[in-house]
């Protein structure tokens, strides 16, 4: 029987500073009608949305740009520009730098930490009009694309060439490759394809003074000193605007399969993961954790129904396992013998499972996992904590948070409705979601710094894959020591001495 390790507690001797007023916007100017007149010399009128005259766009048309996906963060920008070329981006940025106007680069606006919307009235620079594939080499697998290409459209583009983007996430229909790079998005198959720090080969970036940094190399190997592109991967638009991406696409698997497994208790997840890795080895491509409460929310909100309700009575959680390989018969044989051994074990780790028997069922099983974010948002307002903690602490984190909220008398219909957990097991990444009736200062005060202190006690990370944005600037200290933050600030000042690039984001 698997035994849980006791959490090693870290006693926090120095009280951490706790304030949440975004820094970095002082000294910046608002966009004026004169600025608009200048932008009209760079862009056609169809690329300018502004409530200022002479554009006088109704403010309702700017709402999708000013409000984030969760409807949690709200900006007041008067102006959205949609350049079509790197040269246009460069000219806009050069002007904003001279005029000290803050710029928020915006991709698909699916970010979950408020990084893609303004804090006040910064100018929004949308990459939506830069959406062309520049080149693809089906021998090397290297794809070069504009930053504004939507992830799904790149997947569709590569399909006839028998390649895939080495990244997949539930927001693929809206998020852009430039946004993915800028958040260093992880997603559902990081376990197989690794992080964007490995698969991105080159970037084209417009720096805060308007200079175009052309690092759009399509070389697999390039050991010529500092690897500058790495700085922009995960910089969340604070160092420059990514306009082009060179990425190593992966060969499309010849065969993919998946199975949803129901587990009687959370303690079985870790031994199950070990066993699945041992038996499936090179064909394993995803291993995702879903707790019972969030599974039920997905079913309730129509994201799909994977297993028969009678079969999953008493199941405490679920995992979605995917295989991708080069030989269907071989892969299926491996998966079937895994399932057989799991079901016939003396002390079975699983209650039951559903193996996809058609492409439609394969998609339906993924729809449940990919639909969790939406299900949670349909249920209420989600406080999302995207954390790295040891796998055997996933459930403990969810339970402790729930108990903490109960002790504050906040666990009821009119405050916090559910505390749920799901995530990427192979990456040690738990998505702790607190689903509330509304975003309120009282709930936030109960959750923060409580959750961050809890993460620190496990020596975890306060952001595994969503980034810092505006949500966690004040909590950066939990995952970065003062020396690291000092050097991050020096790098920011070096690239962006006027502080125009996504002000108030990432750095405290
Ligand atoms: P935006 O939201 O527009 O921007 C995100 C940040 O990047 C902002 O700080 C913005 O300023 C900056 N930015 C955007 N484009 C550029 C650019 N061209 N140059 C410089 N800076 C730029 N994240 C994961 O890691 N894994 C997941 O599995 C995952 N699943 C998701 C599922 C759903 C349903 C949703 C809504 C979100 C999910 N996310 C996930 C979060 C989100 O980070 C990703 O969707 C995505 O990487 C953001 O891309 P975007 O184009 O929408 O960027
Ligand atoms: C996911 O894994 O589903 C995403 O990171 C989005 C989320 O945390 O809801
Ligand atoms: Zn995730």
From TrEMBL:
Keywords of the record, alphabetical order, are: FAD, Flavoprotein, Oxidoreductase
Catalysed conversion reaction: (R)-lactate + 2 Fe(III)-[cytochrome c] = 2 Fe(II)-[cytochrome c] + pyruvate + 2 H(+)
Q: Does the keyword Flavoprotein apply?
A: yes
Key word Oxidoreductase present: yes
Q: Which Pfam families does the entry link to?
A: FAD-oxidase_C, FAD_binding_4
Q: Which cofactor does it need?
A: FAD
The entry lists its GO molecular-function terms as: D-lactate dehydrogenase (cytochrome) activity; FAD binding
- In which family does this protein belong, per the annotation? Belongs to the FAD-binding oxidoreductase/transferase type 4 family.
Q: What is this protein called?
A: FAD-binding domain-containing protein
Q: Which organism is it from?
A: Lentinus brumalis
Phylogenetic lineage: Eukaryota, Fungi, Dikarya, Basidiomycota, Agaricomycotina
């Amino acid at each position: 029987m698997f035994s849980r390790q006791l959490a090693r507690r870290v006693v926090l001797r120095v009280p951490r500073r706790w304030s949440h007023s975004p820094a970095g916007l002082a000294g910046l100017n608002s966009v004026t009608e004169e600025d608009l007149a200048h932008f009209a010399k760079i862009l056609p009128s169809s690329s300018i949305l502004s409530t200022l005259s002479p554009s006088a766009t109704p403010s309702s048309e700017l709402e999708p740009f000013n409000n984030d996906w969760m409807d949690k963060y709200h900006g007041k920008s008067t102006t959205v520009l949609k350049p079509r070329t790197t040269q246009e981006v460069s000219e806009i940025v050069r002007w904003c730098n001279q005029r000290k106007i803050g710029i928020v680069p915006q991709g698909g606006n699916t970010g979950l930490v408020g990084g893609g919307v303004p804090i006040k009235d910064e100018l929004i620079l949308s990459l939506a009009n830069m959406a062309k594939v520049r080149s693809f080499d089906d021998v090397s697998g290297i794809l070069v694309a504009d930053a504004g290409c939507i992830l799904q459209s790149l997947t569709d583009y590569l399909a006839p060439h028998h390649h895939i983007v080495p990244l997949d996430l539930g927001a693929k229909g809206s998020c852009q490759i430039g946004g993915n790079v800028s958040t260093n998005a992880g997603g559902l198959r990081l376990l197989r394809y690794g992080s964007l720090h490995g698969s991105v080969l080159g970037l084209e970036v417009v720096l805060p003074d308007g200079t175009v940094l052309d690092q759009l190399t399509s070389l697999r190997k390039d050991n010529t000193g500092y690897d500058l592109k790495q700085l922009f991967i995960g910089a969340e638009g604070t160092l420059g605007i990514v306009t082009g991406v060179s990425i190593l696409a992966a060969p499309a698997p010849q065969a993919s399969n998946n199975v949803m497994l129901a587990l009687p208790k959370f303690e079985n997840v870790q031994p199950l993961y070990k066993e699945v890795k041992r038996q499936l080895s090179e064909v394993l491509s995803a291993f995702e954790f879903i707790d019972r409460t969030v599974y039920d929310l997905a079913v309730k909100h129509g994201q799909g129904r994977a297993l028969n309700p009678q079969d999953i009575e008493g199941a405490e959680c679920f995992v979605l396992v995917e295989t991708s390989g080069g030989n269907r018969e071989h892969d299926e044989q491996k998966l079937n013998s895994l399932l057989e051994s799991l079901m016939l074990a003396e002390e079975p780790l699983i209650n039951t499972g559903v193996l996809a028997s058609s492409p439609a069922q394969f998609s339906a099983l993924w729809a449940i996992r990919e639909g969790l974010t939406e299900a949670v948002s349909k249920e209420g307002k989600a406080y999302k904590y995207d954390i790295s903690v040891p796998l055997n602490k996933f459930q403990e984190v969810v339970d402790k948070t729930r108990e903490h909220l109960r002790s504050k008398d906040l666990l009821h219909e009119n405050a916090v409705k559910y505390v749920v957990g799901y995530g990427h097991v192979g990456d040690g990444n738990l998505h702790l979601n607190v689903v509330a009736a509304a975003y309120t200062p009282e709930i936030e005060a109960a959750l923060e710094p409580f959750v961050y202190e809890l993460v620190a006690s496990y020596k975890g990370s306060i952001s595994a894959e969503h980034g810092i944005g505006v949500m966690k600037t004040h909590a950066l200290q939990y995952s970065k020591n003062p020396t690291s933050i000092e050097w991050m600030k020096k790098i920011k000042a070096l690239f962006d001495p006027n502080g125009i690039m996504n002000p108030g984001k990432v750095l405290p």
